[in-house]
Amino acid sequence: MKNSVCFLLLFTILIAGTNNFSAQNKTNSTSEIKRLISKKRAYNSSYGYGFRIQIYYGNEIKARSLQSKFKANFPDLYTKLDYDKPDWKVLVGNYKTKLEADKAVINFSEKFSGLIVIPLGK
C-alpha cells in the first residue's frame, strides 16, 4: 500500500514536470517573441551594444597621457580616445555585459580612479 502511494505521487510529479517543459518551448516560438527578438537585433545592428569603461574625461593632454599609461599597464586591452566637444574621453575595453565591465573596473581601480561603465550606442 505504501509503495503504491509513493509510486502514484512520483508518477503525478513526473507528468506535471513534463507538461511544464513543453509549455516553455511554446512561449519562445510565439509571433510576439519573434517580433521582439528581431526588433532587438535591428537596434543592436544600428546602435551597437556592449560596454566600455571611461577612465578620463577632460583636456587633451591629460587624456593622451592617461591613455598611454593605461596601454603600458594593460597592453592587451583596446583603448579609444574620443573627442566630445570641448573635452576628450579615454575609453577602454569591449565588454558584452555590464557585469564583465564591472569586474574589469575592480581590476583597473588599483591604478586608476573615477572609472565609469559606459553603454555603447548611447
Helix-strand layout with pairing:
Elements: H1 2-27, H2 31-47, E1 51-58, H3 60-73, E2 79-84, E3 87-95, H4 98-108, E4 116-119
Antiparallel strand pairs: 1-3, 1-4, 2-3
CATH architecture of the largest domain: 2-Layer Sandwich
Largest sheet: 4 strands, antiparallel
Proportion in helices = 55-70%
Q: Helical segment tally?
A: 4
Rg computed from alpha carbons, rounded to a whole number of angstroms: 25 Å
pLDDT < 50 stretches: none
Model description:
It is a single chain. This protein is α+β, with helices and mostly antiparallel strands. It folds into two domains: 2-46; 48-119, Sporulation related repeat (Alpha-Beta Plaits). The protein contains four helices and four strands, in the order H-H-E-H-E-E-H-E. A hairpin with a 2-residue loop joins strand 2 and strand 3 (87-95). The mean pLDDT is 83.
Task: Give a concise summary.
This protein has 122 residues and is of the alpha+beta class. It has 4 helices and 4 strands, in the order ααβαββαβ.
Kindly list the characteristics that best describe this protein.
122 residues; alpha+beta; Alpha-Beta Plaits; 4-stranded antiparallel β-sheet; 4 helices; elongated
